[in-house]
Structure formats: C-alpha cells, structure tokens
Amino acid sequence: MSSIELLQNWFTEQCDGEWEHEHGIKIETLDNPGWKIVIPLTQTKLCNKNFTSIDIERGANDWVFCEKKDFNFYGYGGSKNLPEIIMHFISLSQSK
Question: What does pTM read for this prediction?
Fold first, then answer.
C-alpha cells in the first residue's frame, strides 16, 4: 500500500462524525522547495504517544524533519520527500 493510501486509511479511521469537522490534515509546499504536513493528533490514540524527532540531512533538496508538538505531527522535507514524511507518520500510527 502506498504512503498516501495508508494516510487515507488513518484519516478515515479517525472520522467519527465530529473529529473531521474540527481537525484536518494539511499538506503545503515550501518555497525552498519542499513539503510541510501537519496532522492533528487531538482526540486520537496518538495524542499521548511518544515520538522521537527525526532530522535527516542528505542534501540541499533531500532532507526530512519530523516532530510531535502541541498535539500535532509536523513533517517537513525536500521536494521529493513527501512519501518519506508520510511514512514517518505511519510508523508513529502503527507503533505499539
């Protein structure tokens, strides 16, 4: 399954008739160029899960930084790193 399909599945599991009206996944582009993704964890099983920040620098356009802060997952990366950013979130969502 692709990273997008896994993210869609996680999102669908959170939708309970209320959550989706208050919370939404945001995917934006950065001007350096790159990606930013913000995933709300409020009222999910991930809200109180520990997550160690990830900081990978492979090159000027090949990098990833992910953190959990203020009940949100934040992921940033280079222009071709969106699937990798999403997979770091999926790893959090599937961790025990």
Answer: 0.94
